[in-house]
Every structure is written in structure tokens, then in C-alpha cells.
Amino acid sequence: MKTSFRIPRRLAILALLCAGLAGCASTNTSQKGRNVPIQPKQQVTALLKAIETGEAAPVAVVNPEKYIQHNLAVADGLAGFGAALQALPKGSARVNTVRVFRDGDYVFSHTDYNFFGPKIGFDIFRFEDGKIVEHWDNLQQTPATANPSGRTMIDGPAVAADLDQTEPNKKLVAAFVDDILVNGRLDRLGGYFDGDNYVQHNPQIADGLSGLGDALQALAKAGITMKYSKVHKVLGEGNFVLVVSEGEFAGKSTSFYDLFRVQGGKVAEHWDTIETIPPRAEWKNSNGKF
């Protein structure tokens, strides 16, 4: 029988873990008498859904002895995770993970949340010896309307293709971010795209290079600056590549998560979240955003 814990009781999950659930819970499921390993992508999807359902079993994938938290609004370790769940209004959480990809020890996901309000988020989990030991994320409030091209922050293709092209695609996207976003080499911009064919999910920007150009002009006219200063991670699976960067937006320290879909050796589609990094005095852990 499946046991669920509603949100006010979720700290009971931690009690179970401390009592040894994490150490003894199987990472296999039975299929016609055989043990079938649960893959990390499935484990991450189930863990995120447990925020909504309160199920205890998916949390067993987290190493209770070593869980490093980079969400600066949450205290470190499983205790911090449990406290954040405890603070949620009863029955308010909703989790719909639309995309999930794996790059070696890392699993990264793209999720439509209601977590202290509607948000779109990217999560990155690092696995070690079959358990999650570290977590990063980037959250942005969900806009009330679609972007100028009628797209949302979460719709579009969701399944990785061209799995044999993961490394070339990561190199292409890393070069694009370094050339254009970090160093502003706009003379190289056209080489990364197939003409004006560029699907955009940023809530303020229309499709195409023309839409991107119009948005940048509007920012400049409003006196709003956007600067990427350092790339921290480039993760990919097939034709999807996620880049985690640090910089400034409107004069504030900012974390940029950009997900790109590559097609035919060109950048074809883009999703992102932009999150302001709070002052250090407001951090609930000392691990840093990145």
C-alpha cells in the first residue's frame, strides 16, 4: 500500500530517512520477477513530484549524510529541504516536470511549479554512488500572458534527439554564449542561426533574431543593462543544452539559466529563467548560488 504524507507532515519524511529509509530503500522496481533499476531521470521526476504529493519513498534517493543546497532561500541539508516544505501553505504545491535530461552525474529538469506562487524553474541534481548529493536551481515567476509570439516559458519539444551529438552541441552552445552573451561579439551572431528561424520562449521576446534585436533595443532605450560575466556549467543531452551563468541584470547580481535546442548545427530554440541573487546577509546557506 502506498503511503502519502500531506505537506504539514512532510518533516516525517526526514524522520524516516534518519531512521534508515535512505539506506535500505531499494532503487529497483519489480518487473515480471526481475529487478529493474530506476534511472536517475525517473528518480528526479518522482522526487520533484513528491513536493506536491508528499510521498516519502522518492526522497530516499537523497543522501541524508551529504546534501548540499544551492537554493539560497533554503537551509542546507535535508533539514532545510524539510523546513521549506513545512512552510508551504497546505495543499498549495503543484509540480509538472516537462523536461528532464541527463549528463553524466548530473540530471537537469525544467518544471512548471506552484511553489510559494506560480514559477518556472530549472533544477540540477548531482548524483554520487546512486544518491543525490547536491542541488542547484533557478526560479522565475510565471508571467500572466504568453510572449509576443504566443509562446509560454515551458511549451515546445521535450524529448532529446541526436544523442550522438551531445558533445558537439555543447561546444556549439558554449561558443555561442561566450561569443555573444559574455563578450558581445555581435558580428558572429548570424553564424549561430539558420537565418531568422529561432523559436523564443523568453516571456518578453518574440521569435527570430529580429525579435531578439527588438528586445535588446527596448532594453537599451529603457536604460536596462544585461551582462553575462561567467559561465559556471554547460550540461547537455542530445540536442538540448543548458548553460548556467552569472552576471547582472538591471544593476543586480543575477543567475541566468538558458536552455537551447540545437537543430542541424544551429541554435534553433531557447528557454530561460532569470533570478536575482539576494545579498549574502539574506542567504540561508553558505554554499553560494553556483
Automatic annotation (TrEMBL):
Q: One Pfam match, by short name?
A: SnoaL_2
- Looking at the keywords, is Lyase present? no
- All residue ranges annotated as the SnoaL-like domain in the record: 173-270
At the top level of its lineage, which domain of life is listed?
A: Bacteria
Q: Has keyword Ligase?
A: no
Q: Which PROSITE patterns match?
A: PROKAR_LIPOPROTEIN
Q: Enumerate the UniProt keywords alphabetically.
A: Signal
Give the signal peptide range. 1-24
Protein's name according to its UniProt entry: Nuclear transport factor 2 family protein
The organism is Variovorax ureilyticus
